[in-house]
């Protein structure tokens, strides 16, 4: 070492080289020193015990004992090192015994010393060199890493290296540690590797409490923003995977909605959850555009935000409803469609919806005819009931508004999609949350992680609370059909910008012309509840209000024709006729008071039936006393009178009770027809 320091300080070259070689040779000298020491010990022993039989017995026993102790002491090391050590000690002690009794130079004791001794010493030198090379390639580093994080005795298996993904089997010490210890160490492993926490995951083996797979993704491929350019499978079936983004290792991020009996995959409902600014809108657009691009699905959408994100897609929707009463009607329509669709599927021999159910039924295997002949019934497309900003609907209708749908719809070929920021138990009932097996979890408050992801996924390393709203579009997807070891893998959905709007409009036009239309069973169930509020997707898309200049031109034409601009309901009034006599209550036509004009029973029924018809024509199928405020003021009637008429209409079957107190659903007048 002194010579090495002299070299650094500018000493003589010969001394420096010699010191360097001595420094490099030092780790390899112990086996050779042991060889030389054994030779000296053999010569001294022969001088002392050459003619002693007792010494021969003692040396033999000592040789056996020393070999046994070496084997016993090596149980904590690897099997190779244990065996190598025992062979070396046995050979050395046996030679020493022979040298003490026969002499170190006697034949063949001397030859064995000169040939076998260097061979054993070189074997230890070779072992040391190989161990150093192995450490340089990673094995020693892995052991050091595991030791740092508290898993020193864990055994790492062979690593499987994929593009931007390394997977290695891991087994912790039996009886001392479990998979939970590995899970708790993931943060320290990520710190040791200088990676984000989400880049290190652990997938426990379901059949073992101490074995699993450690997954490391060294490069975050999600940092680059990818803009949406169009659907992945235009004209495909809704039963095929929906591509909504990519994983951090570059693999496509997909999910399925319908089930597949061949693959053993169940149909599913979905929850999209994420805080403000987490990219929930873009994620919803990714999923909805994928759905609309398929040929055998229809979409019913409720959006209290007046379709702020989805307006370019409106022509492709089968039914679009804003928040409030229209959404209440849509919920009731879905509830009515479920048993009707289930009945149709069962009658045609389908245990669950499959793509064949969307085609015309021309097979004797799927027929509703009792004689087994093909029935030719129109097919039934898959139905997606989407509730955007569902917290608004839940506040209005109660936290169990979707419970019945979530529990019963999957067998009817209906998938419920609920999107909201925080699916906590004070907003959504536990029964509804338990019936939403699929979830797209975006960035959120760390305290909300348990509301959106299962505990086992969080334990495997998923941490959406680490993103918050700082990484829009980052998400975890848990859904049937996705391998469980992917649940804790972060993904990212595509970004929707202003450049995506023309493509979305083209997609809506394609769906309008080529997409599925509601089958008679689903449309009939919806119409029986919603009446004229449900029209289905039309060939011309959504109706637009007339331009202002057209209204002005019509008024000018009326003035030119000397026509009076009066309301149609006032056209038959004679302006010269005497006013009718005052009736009881005409002096206080104030809404909400007990007093008011009291019509005859016959007139009351006629007026109330007329009011229900007006609401039905407007598509307002869920009503209560508050909805009759303007109507009461117009007809000089009181609120208590309206409440009494509502109860009477319910008893006559014109109204149906809802799950909200004081709210009634209008049964369309033409339902029976």
From TrEMBL:
Look up keyword Lipoprotein and say if it applies. Answer: no
Q: Which InterPro entries match?
A: FtsK/SpoIIIE/SftA, FtsK_dom, P-loop_NTPase
Compositional bias of kind Acidic residues:
573-586
Q: What species was this sequence derived from? A: Streptomyces camelliae
Keyword list, A-Z: ATP-binding, Membrane, Nucleotide-binding, Transmembrane, Transmembrane helix
Q: What is this protein called?
A: Plasmid transfer protein TraB
User: Per its UniProt record, what PANTHER family does this chain match?
Assistant: DNA TRANSLOCASE FTSK, SPORULATION PROTEIN RELATED
Region Disordered, annotated ranges = 537-558, 573-602
Query: Which classification does the entry list for the species?
Result: Bacteria, Bacillati, Actinomycetota, Actinomycetes, Kitasatosporales
The record's listing under NCBIfam families reads: plasmid_TraB
Q: Does the keyword Transmembrane helix apply?
A: yes
Residue ranges annotated for the FtsK domain, each copy included? 250-451
């Amino acid at each position: 070492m002194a010579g090495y320091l002299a070299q650094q300080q500018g000493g003589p070259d010969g001394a420096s080289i010699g010191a360097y070689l001595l420094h490099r040779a030092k780790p390899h000298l112990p086996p050779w020193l042991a060889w030389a020491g054994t030779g000296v010990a053999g010569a001294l022993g022969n001088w002392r015990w050459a003619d002693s039989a007792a010494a021969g017995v003692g040396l033999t026993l000592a040789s056996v004992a020393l070999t046994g102790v070496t084997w016993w002491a090596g149980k904590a090391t690897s099997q190779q090192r244990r065996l190598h050590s025992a062979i070396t000690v046995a050979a050395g002690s046996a030679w020493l015994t022979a040298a003490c009794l026969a002499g170190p130079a006697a034949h063949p004791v001397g030859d064995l010393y000169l040939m076998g001794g260097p061979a054993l010493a070189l074997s230890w030198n070779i072992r040391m060199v190989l161990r150093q090379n192995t450490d340089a390639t990673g094995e020693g580093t892995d052991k050091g890493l595991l030791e740092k994080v508290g898993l020193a005795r864990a055994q790492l298996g062979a690593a499987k290296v994929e593009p931007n993904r390394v997977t290695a089997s891991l087994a912790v010490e039996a009886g001392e540690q479990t998979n939970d210890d590995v899970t708790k160490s993931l943060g320290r492993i990520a710190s040791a590797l200088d990676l984000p926490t989400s880049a290190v995951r652990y997938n426990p083996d379901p059949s073992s409490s101490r074995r699993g797979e450690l997954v490391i993704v060294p490069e975050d491929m999600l940092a680059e923003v990818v803009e949406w350019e169009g659907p992945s499978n235009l004209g495909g079936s809704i039963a095929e995977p929906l591509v909504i983004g990519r994983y951090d290792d570059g693999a496509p991020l997909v999910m399925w909605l319908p089930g597949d009996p061949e693959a053993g995959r169940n149909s599913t409902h979905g929850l999209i959850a994420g805080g403000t600014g987490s990219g929930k809108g873009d994620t919803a657009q990714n999923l909805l555009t994928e759905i609309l691009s398929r040929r055998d699905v229809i979409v019913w959408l409720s959006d209290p935000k007046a379709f702020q994100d989805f307006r370019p897609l409106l022509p492709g929707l089968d039914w679009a409803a804003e928040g409030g009463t229209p959404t209440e009607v849509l919920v009731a329509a879905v509830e009515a469609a479920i048993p009707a669709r289930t009945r149709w599927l069962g009658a045609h021999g389908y245990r669950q919806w499959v793509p064949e159910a969307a085609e015309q039924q021309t097979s004797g295997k799927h027929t509703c005819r009792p004689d087994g002949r093909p029935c030719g019934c129109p097919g039934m497309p898959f139905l997606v009931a989407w509730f955007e900003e569902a917290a608004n609907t839940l506040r209005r209708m109660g936290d169990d508004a979707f419970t019945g749908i979530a529990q019963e719809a999957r067998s009817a070929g209906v998938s419920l999609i609920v999107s909201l920021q925080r699916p906590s138990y004070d907003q959504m009932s536990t029964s509804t949350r338990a019936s939403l097996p699929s979830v797209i979890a975006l960035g959120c408050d760390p305290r909300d992680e348990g509301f959106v992801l299962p505990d086992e996924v969080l334990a495997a390393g998923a941490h959406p609370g680490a993103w918050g709203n700082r990484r829009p579009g980052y998400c975890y997807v848990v859904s049937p059909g996705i391998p469980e070891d992917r649940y804790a893998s972060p993904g990212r959905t595509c970004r929707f910008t202003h450049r995506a709007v023309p493509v979305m409009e083209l997609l809506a036009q394609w769906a309008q012309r080529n997409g599925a239309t509601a089958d008679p069973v689903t449309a009939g169930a919806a119409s029986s509840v919603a009446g004229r509020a449900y029209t289905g997707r039309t060939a011309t898309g959504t109706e637009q209000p007339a331009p202002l200049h057209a209204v002005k031109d019509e008024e000018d034409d009326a003035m030119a024709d000397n026509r009076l601009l009066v309301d149609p309901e006032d056209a038959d009034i004679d302006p010269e006729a005497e006013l009718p006599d005052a009736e009881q209550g005409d002096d206080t036509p104030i809404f909400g008071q007990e007093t008011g004009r009291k019509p005859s029973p016959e007139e009351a029924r006629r007026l109330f039936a007329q009011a229900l018809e007006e609401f039905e024509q407007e598509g307002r199928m869920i009503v209560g006393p508050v909805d009759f405020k303007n109507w009461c003021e117009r007809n000089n009637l009181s609120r208590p009178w309206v409440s009494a008429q509502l109860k009477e209409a319910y008893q006559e079957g014109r109204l149906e009770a809802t799950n909200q107190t004081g709210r009634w659903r209008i049964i369309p007048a033409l339902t029976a027809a």
